[in-house]
């Protein structure tokens, strides 16, 4: 009889093996499905980037381009609108258009995404459609959108009506699309953080029949079976469940991908085709996960192969070597070494993830030693029957005792890492603006500014708004050896637009920081080719007036004619309901220039933080569920492994509730200690990963204690399965064993 036939025969007659096989297959299915989902995320972002390369091209050219291009972001009701302005520089028929764009809009026409067209039809023209400055001429196809709900429009121009920031492209979708770096990093971390608990769940499921299988194999070994035959039997028995689980995991992966399309990222959800993986990747994952499971099962046969008599009769474990304690410091050192490499090169991302996986695995080496030490402490200090039973178990078989806590420890590690990263990343949020929070503004050049101001004021009056636009210029100033920022704006406009406190003079004046004692201010009259101010400075010739401001404010009438400004902004104050109309006036008058506001600046940051919170919650819930399931299965398996011992104790009169209390202590005590260590380790890793994206000091929140408390609670709840398992042992005759 070959090993596979033997495995099938055992599976048919042994109910406990059937349960173990089903749970192992489900664990492998979960691991396979999660890995396929997380592996597909970089491909999904790559698909997005390829579809929207026309919105954010990278292949600029100084001359000889085929199309003039400009893009800007807009906002309405908290939703981002992407605007692309184009003007063909050659015959439009010679242009290669990206998928989803059937034709280039003529000057004065635009193509809209379906969602934008619907939104524009439901809102007043002064709040949205007027700002486009073009008439609808069709819709963009799905192949041109980042996500189904994207608000985007393509506006046609002639070359002379393009925005001031336009540049040339060799084609509309020029450049190379790149996947989302942040989501790629998170996907890699997720593979490590979720694959390890999944494999722990598989290991816990396989332990349900570990003792019985070990005795069976030891008997076969003593009867003359060779090590190769015993190994083949285990490989066949485990491989059967692993292969079934891998097939099931591949089968359910489309369902997981379908669910993932509803999880927003980068402002919207996903198209179903985004998550299609290349078949070689699917085959690789479907083969690799079962190989890992079978390899782990075969690696655990050392005692059966080498000392079958001890495996059949039982043997007290030898004390664990204290050298295990060096594994964690070594893993931390390796992690930070690869982390420093990743800061210098993105090619070091794979070694970083490998070191993170090694770091997550290291507690499984140190945990049994800590468990053994904890058991010794309790056998010496406590004298209650349940405490003595639990302490003896922790002391005699610390590896098996720690196994119930392994999944929970990994979940606590992931939670502490996430709760270190999130507050630190949130502390980075914020923005700086030279204007008040209520001000909307755009940048242009000095030639276009007067016409834009007149057009904006005309539209504001047409919309019934009292606010008016103002021109704010910037000039490079110098006092002695110190350079200062100067704004060319009247005092009345400065009070409304800038965060300054002024007592305006009746005559035009220069306002300088209080106590600056500026007797002479010089201004730049021209700029160098690289945009920096030259040393050709001329005296302003006006004594400044002290004011509560950090910048120098200059009345426009005081600058000599022909003074060159380094930048010109058009600003409009607007609050409440008037903001959308004021934004429309600015956009319509400028022909699609980038309008800047506080909500635009903070909106992108808030969206990224919301994405991070969302995937963090999903990941932590998944890790916690996997950890709790592995703890429950490991506890049940522990009872099954010791049916003889528990049956004898109950036959001798030991109450079931005493044994249940001992089992709960076995699960809770190692978990309580191990989760504290895992929480500290996760915090260290979180600090390291935060240093990968920022040089700021990390922020530590009191919520860091939450994973530790919840981890211990999950371990205790999972250990509650011991009572039903003990009742089952009491109901079955010992002769069945």
Distance between the termini: 25 Å
Stretches where pLDDT falls below 50 for ≥5 residues? 527-535
Mean pLDDT, all residues: 81
Number of DSSP helical runs: 22
Rg calculated over all Cα atoms: 34 Å
β-sheet strand percentage: 5-15%
> What is the share of helical residues?
40-55%
Number of strands: 16
Shape: elongated
Outline the biggest β-sheet: 10 strands, mixed
Keywords:
22 helices, 10-stranded mixed β-sheet, 737 residues, 55% helix, alpha+beta, 16 strands
Structural overview:
It is a multi-pass membrane protein. The chain crosses the membrane at residues 21-44, 185-209, 230-256, 276-302, 323-342, 348-379, 400-422, 617-640, 667-692, 704-726. The chain is an alpha+beta fold and 737 residues long. Among the domains are: 1-53 and 177-315, no CATH class; 67-169, no CATH class; 439-597, no CATH class. The chain is built from 22 helices and 16 strands. The strands form two sheets. Strands 7, 8, 9, 10, 11, 12, 13, 14, 15 and 16 form a ten-stranded mixed β-sheet that branches. A hairpin with a 2-residue loop joins strand 1 and strand 2. It is elongated. It starts with a helix and ends in a 6-residue tail after the last helix.
Helix and strand layout, with pairings?
Blueprint: H1 3-13, H2 15-51, E1 67-76, E2 79-88, E3 109-112, H3 114-122, E4 135-139, E5 151-156, E6 167-169, H4 181-206, H5 210-222, H6 227-260, H7 279-299, H8 302-306, H9 308-313, H10 327-344, H11 349-361, H12 363-381, H13 385-396, H14 398-427, E7 439-444, H15 449-462, E8 470-479, E9 482-488, H16 491-497, E10 510-513, E11 522-524, E12 537-539, E13 545-547, E14 552-554, E15 567-573, H17 578-590, E16 595-596, H18 598-641, H19 643-651, H20 656-693, H21 705-718, H22 722-731
Parallel strand pairs: 2-5, 3-4, 9-14, 10-13
Antiparallel strand pairs: 1-2, 1-6, 3-5, 7-15, 7-16, 8-9, 8-11, 8-15, 10-14, 11-12
Helix pairs in contact: 1-2, 1-6, 2-4, 2-6, 2-7, 4-11, 4-14, 4-18, 6-7, 10-11, 10-20, 12-13, 12-14, 12-20, 13-14, 13-20, 14-18, 14-20, 14-21, 15-17, 18-21, 18-22, 20-21, 20-22
Main location: membrane
Membrane topology: Multi-pass membrane protein
Keywords: Cell membrane, Membrane, Transmembrane, Transmembrane helix
